[in-house]
Design brief:
single chain; three-stranded mixed β-sheet; 4% strand
Length: 327
């Protein structure tokens, strides 16, 4: 359904003031308590067909098109530095920098793809995917990042310990290389986290809500899309449970905050912890502080500790942010 000028004005006014507009006033679906962030999905063109086409473009067309762009770059990097799993001495550290850069090349193109879909297909401002105020609050990203980083690191270690898996940690910290790699990693991880949250949270969340009108259904729908997109024959039930819970946590966080930045900060903290603090053998811009000698698979213990970390984060983050909002 194409939103009328009256609808657009009402939604924008609600976003600016923080007040709610009724679900029936802004689009299809049953009347429900409004959410200023989710209401942005009903601006412009927001029918089932439009969002269906948008999801196909974002999840299928953009990755295929990006392969044509970054394919030659990847081939050059591999011919120059070796295969993606090659360890390269760079930044005064030996790390899988080639694989890291090849992995990161996709995400700016994905952001561009989402931008074009929202602007040309949905015909609404791109920044409505970030917040109702159409701004990107880097301080809010930083707050979520700082709170979640120790939680995700400790929960991962606790999950490994509770699972009873034999684990060997190798202390591989190289200060000069780690700091240089971290500087590069923070920038690229921020781009990657923003890209993933736009693709797997913002667009599906607002799209499902625009059609159905229920925040809970929108959050579950976005989490299912996130889980199914990461399908692999090698995945275990624990892996899918972990993916679904992570997706649902990020979606619920976005709905509650009515902004995408907290989910971006959580995503950034998760990746920084995984690749720079305690790491399975993986692609990385520099050696982490500790490297696991053998890969650690997903377990129900890791799923459980991740849920605990999410609950603690929720309480702490909204407590801190809530106080700031009331000041």
């Amino acid at each position: 359904m194409t939103a009328s000028e009256k609808t657009s004005t009402a939604s924008a006014g609600a976003a600016a003031s923080g007040s709610a507009v009724t679900g029936s006033a802004v689009g299809p679906g049953p009347a429900a308590r409004s959410n200023a962030y989710l209401d942005m999905g009903r601006l412009g063109r927001s029918s089932e067909l439009i969002y269906g086409i948008g999801l196909i473009i974002i999840f299928l067309v953009v990755p295929l098109a990006s392969a044509q762009v970054i394919g030659p770059i990847q081939a050059w990097a591999i011919s120059t530095y070796g295969p993606p799993d090659a360890m390269v001495n760079l930044f005064a550290t030996t790390a899988n920098i080639v694989g890291f850069l090849i992995w990161m090349a996709m995400f700016p193109i994905w952001i561009l793809g989402v931008f074009l879909v929202v602007r040309l297909l949905n015909q609404r401002p791109f920044m409505t995917l970030i917040s109702p105020t159409r701004t990107y609050d880097l301080k809010l990203v930083g707050l979520a990042f700082l709170i979640y980083l120790p939680l995700v690191t400790l929960s991962s270690l606790a999950g490994i310990w509770l699972a009873g898996q034999p684990v060997t940690f190798n202390f591989v910290f190289e200060p000069a290389g780690w700091i240089a790699g971290l500087a590069l990693g923070l920038v690229l991880y921020l781009i990657q986290a923003t890209s993933d949250e736009l693709v797997f949270r913002a667009y599906p969340l607002q799209g499902v809500y625009a059609v159905i009108g229920r925040p809970v259904v929108a959050a579950i729908g976005a989490a299912l899309i996130f889980s199914l997109y990461h399908y692999s024959p090698a995945n275990t039930p624990e892996t899918y449970a972990s993916l679904f819970i992570a997706g649902l946590f990020a979606a619920a966080l976005t709905v509650k905050a009515q902004r995408l930045e907290p989910a971006i900060g959580v995503h950034l903290a998760n990746n920084l912890s995984l690749f720079s603090i305690v790491q399975n053998p993986e692609v990385t811009p520099a050696e982490p502080i500790w490297r696991l000698a053998e890969p650690v698979g997903m377990s129900w213990a890791l799923v459980a500790t991740a849920v605990v970390a999410a609950v603690v984060f929720w309480v702490v983050f909204f407590g801190v942010w809530g106080r700031k909002e009331r000041q």
